[in-house]
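Worked Example 4.2. Consider the chain below.
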Amino acid sequence: MVKKGLWIVVILALLVSVPSLVERVQVEQQNRSYEVVMPYEQFAQWPDMLEGTLDAGQALAELRENGLTSISIEPLTISDLVEDGVFERIQRSEIEHDHPEARGELPENNGQFVKLLEKDSEYIDLVEEVYNNHYAIMTEEGILPNLLQVSFHAYEDDAYLFLPYEVSLNAMPVGFDREALQLINDAGLRIIPRFPNHFMNIHNENHYVYDMLTMLVEDFGAEALSFTGNDVVGADNPEELRTFARKTKELGLAIVTIDFNDQRGMSAFLRVGDLEENVVRLFSMTLGKGREATYAEEVEKALRGYKERNIRMLYVNPVTNFPSGMETYHHPGEAMTGYTYTLEMLALLTNQLGEDQAGTAQPFQSFSQPFFITLLVLAGTVAFLSLTGFALHRYLGVLAAVGALGLSALTLLQVDAALKGLALLTAISGAVYAGLAVDRIKNWKHLIGQYALSAAIALTGAWLVIALLYGPTFIMKVDEFRGVKVLAAVPVLVVGFVLFASFLKKLMNEPVRYWHVAIMGLVAGVLAFYVWRTGNAAMTLPYELEFRYWLESVLYVRPRTSEFLVGFPLFVLGLYLRMKNDKVAPLFITLGMLGFASMVGTFTHLHTALLVSLIRTGYGLVFGFLIGLVLIFVYRLIRRYVYPEVRKRWLG
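Applying the procedure from the previous section yields the following structure tokens:
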């Protein structure tokens, strides 16, 4: 009666959470627009290298026609202006050598002189304004005892600026290239600023960086902000990070996060700025000088990110993968080759994704579930964990219920660790209970029913995890499920221990032999390799990637290898052997837990679209069962024809 009551609670929790899951699917399906971005710093090499053949406006127009929607751009530093021929660094002694009348007039304190090579450049006033703002804030903060200012010095036809106590000459941003901004804007492309973590004293609200941000939003319609390198702005200073995040929020800018590049300070930045739901995920692709012919592989990765990981911003690097350093073209032939391949890459990407969905990447719509549904989901989770405990031992059922109630109470008090812990235990329970539920198999009808029952139990655990970890922060990977590798390993260990308990008890009373150690080492090694392979950056076997790509091209979404080729077929074979009362049945049922752990793990990747996970799991279950039937057929052939011959020769 207790178990029936617990199952009623679980089923009630599943039913009331159906609208929540439907809402999540609707949110994911409604946000289909994607944005294709390119860095201006890499783009600028083409008109520079192909001067007279390809101008910047023409290049931007062609890129836009082939699918480019946006350009990212970084602020300039004085070093950039020196490299562009606007300024020239110069020493006091050099000025005094060329202009003896300057002796005694030039400032004596520490600083940097720059010679103005373009005297009518707009950057002269910009540099003066930025550095004077810098000095004013330093004086206000008590860093400088007296207010300093940029000074202008002219002798004959030469003019110079003096920057007192100049620091970070190579890195301190002074502003954006207004001509480049206007060029991008005139081409009908959107602008995405990229900011480095090289600003000083940005906790001061009068800092010039906030004028820069306001200009980008009001004059050029910027809607998103990204960061260069491995840090967000203010990552080293909580007060600076808080102020910059708040200003970003006030301007309504979305924050770009980079897939596979967890920038330092990003989580804190989003949290303190209340920006966790105002995020767009980016996937970076590399064309690469000398590797252009492989661009189709990069496009495949981008398509997978869009379709499977809710990525809506696709970043095309014509030369080098950002955020690492940038390569350069060495001659016009290289530049033209890169440009041509980039056009092809953009066209292929756009054709695959659909031109009608190209536009501006937007954060996913906010969604949440009512409090009473959360309560019922927690109740269902407690009941489900209790059922798993009872399947092991009645005392464990009581212990699981008490522990789950405690974690649920802490979850209602918004203790994040309790919520994540409860979700991990629920995911593990789903896979473990799927194996423990295996009973006597009388016939083929029972076998199919048991396979479906185990799958349903595992899916119940996955369903509860989805309902527990609910909201846009999870589908944008701002927050995520913790413990994927633990989930991969524990179900196999627990179910294996239960099914082999009597064997292990007997083994403990036996002297340890070398073959015992060898088998245990082999099993441990296989399990360790499987756990190590979990995750996006895992090692793949030879030809495995090619096989995956083929499956995706045929099925749209590929089932997981550990499910349809390993776990589920071995589980089906184990059920068949259980039906035949074969002593090795527990081994294959235990190995089958690899499939159920992977299946539950599929749904814990909350940044994957829910429909994609459902399709993937459906494929895995169907193909896994069919391949399991093939294994049964092979087993019967071996049992009937091969085993008797081997046994005869072994004994004779």
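DSSP finds 26 helices and 13 strands in the chain. The chain has a mean pLDDT of 88. Compare this with Example 4.1 before moving on.
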